[in-house]
Amino acid sequence: MDRCRGDGRGPAECRPCFLRTGVVSGATGSAYGECGKTRVVLSVFGPRPRDKNTGSDSGDPHGMQLDCHVHVPFDSRGGEDDGGGEGMTEAETRLARQLEQSILPSIRQEGLAKTCVEIHCTVLESDGSEVGPAIVCASFALASSRVPLYGLVTYCTASATGGRVLLDPTRSELEASEAVISAAYMASRDQVTFIEAAGDWSVHSFKDCLDTCLDGCKAMCEALRGSLFELGRKGESRKAEQAEPMDAVPSSPESWSEEGGAEEELSDCSDAALAPQEEGFEEFHSVMEEEPRHDPVTMEGRSSEPEESSVTKKLESMVVANEGAEDLDAELDALLDM
Amino acid sequence: MEKESQAFEKLYPQEFLQRFLAKGLRPDGRGLTSARDVTVHVSPISGSPGSAIAKVGNTTVVTSAEVSLLDLGGDEGDDDEGRVSHALDVGPLGATHNDGSVAKTRQQVASVSGRVQGVLSRCVDLRSLKLEGEGGKAWLVGLKSVCLSLDGGLFDAALASCVAALSSLRLPGEVREVVGGGEGRESSEAVVAMEEDRAPSRPVDFLLIPAATAVSIHGDRLLADPTAFEEALAGAEVSAAWGWAPSGGGGDPELVSLEVRSEGHGRATVDADVVHRCLAVSRRRSEARWKGRCLGGAERA
């Protein structure tokens, strides 16, 4: 059965991914990711000083705390939403737990004692796994917000259907499959941070599926790292940034032309934007690319400095106006509270 | 050099802003009464019946519209019309630049959402949402907005994205009753049939097309469409929504919603003539936004 899948991919091809950083102003780092039709916006806040009262559930009160929140506002599959608003649904809680479990091992915690890093994820549309693009975006956003990391975490799903193993299945392929395995993998340390398997494994080989899954993760990690280097290079040369659309494996030609077209649209975006467009894919790209970046992000490999210390260093070298010492203390307090 | 100016901005924000205003400029290079362009894309979310994403500078709001049935209670009164409901979700963004009080953020978000709902209830022809035929049912259009990025102008962006989502929404032409319970549904619940060939779907009718611009007051200067930084330093803010007749051709707009708010660091009282000046500025800027949107959105409706 050598038939192509519904969207023209081979069995071991992942969907092409589009990643963009700097989409949420006011967040330390943010990323927007699209994987096929799954669209995710993720923002990272922190490292912030940790609340002394919370943290009763995590083991170490002096260590770093990672808070993950996932929000799926437009879930067409979901049943009646019970009052909406405050409480998180079960799916959101589960996604947040998966995200935290996958990302936490990749963060270097020794420099971040008593801090809290918050990750907020909004899933705009989902087709297939939502956690996958969320995890990739989280790695991307954490790297671009200069949180010290051990490595990048990528995520891949493999589903087994009637003898074939399909990589990165869409929702319809997932529903038709007999067994599904997903894994989050950190390529730089060759470690699996999260694994989830479900279904009937009597027919299919668990090890083969897992290997296929990890191969997909490795390929995606290569592409992610390449696009981060591109970002760092462009950031240092102080040009306007555009994250290159990245592929895990060669993609179908139509999606390439869409992405290329979206990047060229940048200059006349405001004219084109008001006319109604058919293709949602292109619109999202051109909308997200319009964001001007205020501060260029430099992608250095070394560990980051928390935001406070760079500003206080500059304060020492700045000439401060003739004010009383107590005013300066009050100003410094106000600054460090931000 | 850049880090020093950022430190100055954080330490002495009021002086930072005043230095720009003295030259008739703002920190992002705009003039005092120029507003950011509104960029609107329709149907970015393919799973939703109607959706739109609106961007005002760095503020991004995504709205998704859904229809469901509303039981009017069977009596043919005067208010046999449908309803438009709105919910807004700001997520973690609201808490980053005020004093961190969650209740205050929730209050602000609720007030923005309530205003959007009020404006839309006035601007959408609610009577057209009533279903003919068997009595007592009308459409309830539920709008859900999610703010992805916040930099001032939340009400303007939310209103723009709701209007665009409504204009891309198509009300189903026919409603079929499904009898017999399955999957936990009640037996008499009507199931909406979205088949186009049975009866054509129709768009939502607008009585007025709204557009809004906020104006913030700093001393004796008015700033149109403030960013979050400018909003936090304002003495007061006047937010006005105007509605134009959808037949086009300009004409005088109607003032649909007005809110004068004074909070934050510099509480100030606002005189009536200042409000008039703000309204004039707001109306000019909103007219530009409405003209831009008329091309894409409502003319298709």
UniProtKB/TrEMBL annotation, chain A:
GO terms for cellular component: cytoplasmic exosome (RNase complex); nuclear exosome (RNase complex); nucleolus. The keyword Hydrolase applies. It comes from the Eukaryota. This is Exosome complex exonuclease. Residues 46-90, 236-314 are annotated as: Disordered. Pfam families: RNase_PH (PF01138), RNase_PH_C (PF03725). Residues 13-148, 152-212 form the Exoribonuclease phosphorolytic domain. PANTHER family: EXOSOME COMPLEX COMPONENT (PTHR11953), EXOSOME COMPLEX COMPONENT MTR3 (PTHR11953:SF2).
UniProtKB/TrEMBL annotation, chain B:
Pfam families: RNase_PH. The keyword Cytoplasm applies. One of its GO terms (molecular function) is mRNA 3'-UTR AU-rich region binding. Keywords: Cytoplasm, Exosome, Nucleus, RNA-binding, rRNA processing. Residues 35-172 form the Exoribonuclease phosphorolytic domain. Signal peptide: none annotated. GO terms for biological process: exonucleolytic trimming to generate mature 3'-end of 5.8S rRNA from tricistronic rRNA transcript (SSU-rRNA, 5.8S rRNA, LSU-rRNA); nuclear mRNA surveillance; nuclear polyadenylation-dependent rRNA catabolic process; rRNA catabolic process; TRAMP-dependent tRNA surveillance pathway; U1 snRNA 3'-end processing; U4 snRNA 3'-end processing; U5 snRNA 3'-end processing. SUPFAM superfamilies: Ribosomal protein S5 domain 2-like (SSF54211). InterPro entries: ExoRNase_PH_dom1 (IPR001247), Exosome_comp_Rrp42_subfam (IPR050590), PNPase/RNase_PH_dom_sf (IPR027408), Ribosomal_Su5_D2-typ_SF (IPR020568). One of its GO terms (cellular component) is cytoplasmic exosome (RNase complex). It is found in: Cytoplasm; Nucleus, Nucleolus. Belongs to the RNase PH family. This is Ribosomal RNA-processing protein 43.
